Amino acid sequence: MAPLPFLPNEASRAFGSRPALITADHSFSYEQYAGLVSATAHKLPLAGINPGQRLAFYLSNQWQYAIALMACLHQRIPAVLFSPKLPPARVKELAQRLNCKMLVLAGHASASDDFGNLRVVNISSFCAGATETSAAHLKASLPADQPATLIFTSGSTGTPKAALLSYGNHYFSALGANRNLPFGPGDRWLLSLPLYHVGGLAILFRAALGGGAVVFPENPRDLAGAIAKYRVTHVSLVATQLYRLLQDPAAAKPLAQLKAILIGGSAIPKSLIDRAVELGLPIHTTYGLTEMASQVTTTPPGASREMLATSGRCLPHRQLDISPEGEIRVKGRTRFLGYVDGDKLVQPFDAQGWFATGDLGYM
Q: Is the pTM higher than 0.85?
């Protein structure tokens, strides 16, 4: 497969001074974003992290996280993404199993936490000194099959598995999603899901591909306030988040300004869909999974109430099939490379490349 454009570099050329990352204190243009990625990428070898080595992240959402992840991509360093809710002992165990040598964290970790032989660095110092240099030093493209991220998924067994996703998986996931649900210059997507979750991470790729901005709210619990303050146009929610917003009288006006509300993560109650439709909210129901780099199916803009009761249609660059037993099977350019355990890559695909999700469905 031909190499794919490296999105921060491509976005810098295409969208220039348009906002890329928006925080409470600053707005970074796509030119600045690419420059910060470039500066951070060229610091990684100095920190002793070389191509092919895995770098662990133990963070909540912040703009430096986005910079660091793109810098790792540029340097061919797979990023292992941990939830900050995991206890340090569990992070240590899993990181060592995956042969990580360094752990990037934030202020939530205590100095007394034992991470064993892992070198620990704070994200603030990790990106310190990374000035907004020229993006001219960035690569123009990356191999589609380059290992990019390891994201943990519990699957049907409840045992965490590290799913290895390629750069091409993330790229084509964003490409197909943006074709169904346009996200371009002038749009703003609220980062209401964590970056260690594929649903949150996918927003970074969709934004860089389409030219919209990613908003990092200072208070992730105050979604209505963030939507209003930052003039958000797009948001990804799980059903519980939407339910809470609909119970909040202060959320009515902010919700009405949205262009799209993407709802997924679990089964969506019929009553919740009915209420959203009654209010005229632009909701899109979706089905996705870590192993397919986020969305597989999504309803289109203007979908009928009947269609919103489904998970929508299969997006470009994905394929979906139902087994004789009713199990959903998926493949395509967004299908992950396999599960990683130590240095082993387990590829649970059949002879035709289908991945059995363990979920039931019908078409």
A: yes
